[in-house]
């Protein structure tokens, strides 16, 4: 049971990084990004491919975030004239494109066969071998991520991002470069998603395109919306709740073919309930509707 709890704690730590990074773009800046899982995948594949080619993990770890930043900035530049639902559809399409690349670029990603045997991280003289050590590493990265995002969002720069979210025209009138701010916010969001992807790949030690399918965005949106937009604390709380509730299904004697769809149904049902009865989530500062 202790090994099971350690496993859950590692996944929760990774998804806290992923959900809070999405909240930066979506909650604090107002960018409806439905392709966030693509940044997660880019980070995972980048780190896995580089480390298996002999690149030290510490270098591959940061390059995973850097490549995700590149994709994030390109996405904003390509969709700079889109807003709201149209931006959401465009980012969703971006997620489809990235998934197709993972699936079809067999020379690099091995396509549907995936990449097995991804090594465990090694930092300087610290070679992480056990899941307990990996949990400490994930918690350290998670704590640094939350600290940096909190410092960012509580600073004057964070308030400017919220101004872009609340009234983009007013921000432009006040002389703010809205396009630049959006690129920066999406880039920072993508960086932490890429880092989360690296942590995921080196923990699972095997990745394939199905690990980053677009259905997973339902889970992320549920976490962000239940926790509340523009609330890092809410995202942390919601991540713990959302990841633990479906685990109860493991103790129910049901076929594995049913458990997967039931999890998606639980996520969707929770999202609908929150939208109807608590528009700001647990501790959000912005209405969802």
Report on this model:
With 289 residues, the protein is mainly alpha-helical. 71% of the residues lie in helices and 1% in strands. The chain has a two-stranded antiparallel ribbon with strand order 1-2. It is globular, with a radius of gyration of 19 Å.
- The fraction of residues assigned to DSSP E strands is under 5%
Uncertain stretches of 5 or more adjacent residues: none
Mean of pLDDT? 89
* Cα-based radius of gyration, to the nearest Å: 19 Å
End-to-end distance: 41 Å
Approximate shape: globular
The helix count comes to: 12
Number of individual domains: 2
The tally of strands reads: 2
Helix content bin: over 70%
- Tell me the structural class: mainly alpha
Largest sheet: 2 strands, antiparallel
Spatial sequence of strands, sheet with the most strands: 1-2
Element pattern in H and E = HHHHHEEHHHHHHH
Concise structural overview:
This protein has 289 residues and is an all-alpha fold.
Keywords:
globular, 289 residues, 71% helix, mainly alpha, two-stranded antiparallel ribbon
Q: What's the arrangement of secondary structure elements?
A:
Layout: H1 2-28, H2 36-52, H3 57-78, H4 84-104, H5 106-109, E1 122-123, E2 126-127, H6 131-153, H7 156-166, H8 168-173, H9 178-204, H10 216-227, H11 232-244, H12 256-277
Helix pairs in contact: 1-6, 1-9, 1-10, 1-11, 2-3, 2-4, 2-9, 3-9, 10-11, 10-12
């Amino acid at each position: 049971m202790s090994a099971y709890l350690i496993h859950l704690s590692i996944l929760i730590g990774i998804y806290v990084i992923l959900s809070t990074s999405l909240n930066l773009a979506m909650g604090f800046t107002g960018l409806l990004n439905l392709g966030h899982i693509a940044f997660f995948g880019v980070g995972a594949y980048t780190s896995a491919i580089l480390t298996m080619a002999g690149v030290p993990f510490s270098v591959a770890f940061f390059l995973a975030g850097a490549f995700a930043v590149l994709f994030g900035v390109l996405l904003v530049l390509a969709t700079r004239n889109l807003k709201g639902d149209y931006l959401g559809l465009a980012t969703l399409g971006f997620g489809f494109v990235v998934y197709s690349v993972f699936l079809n670029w067999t020379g690099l990603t091995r396509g549907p066969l995936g990449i097995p045997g991804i090594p465990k991280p090694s930092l300087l003289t610290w070679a992480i071998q056990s899941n307990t050590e990996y949990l400490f590493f994930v918690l350290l990265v998670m704590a640094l991520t939350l600290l940096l995002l909190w410092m960012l969002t509580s600073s004057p720069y964070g308030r400017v991002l919220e101004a872009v979210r609340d009234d983009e025209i007013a921000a432009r009138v006040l002389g703010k470069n809205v396009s630049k701010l959006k690129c920066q916010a999406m880039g920072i969001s993508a960086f932490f998603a890429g880092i989360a992807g690296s942590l995921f790949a080196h923990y699972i030690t095997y990745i394939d395109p199905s690990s980053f399918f677009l259905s997973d965005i339902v889970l992320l949106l549920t976490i962000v919306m239940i926790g509340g937009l523009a609330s890092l604390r809410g995202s942390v709380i919601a991540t713990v709740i959302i990841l633990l509730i479906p685990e109860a299904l493991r103790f129910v004697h049901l076929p594995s073919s049913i458990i997967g769809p039931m999890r998606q149904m639980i996520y969707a049902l929770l999202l609908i309930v929150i939208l109807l009865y608590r528009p700001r989530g647990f501790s959000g500062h912005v209405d969802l509707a």
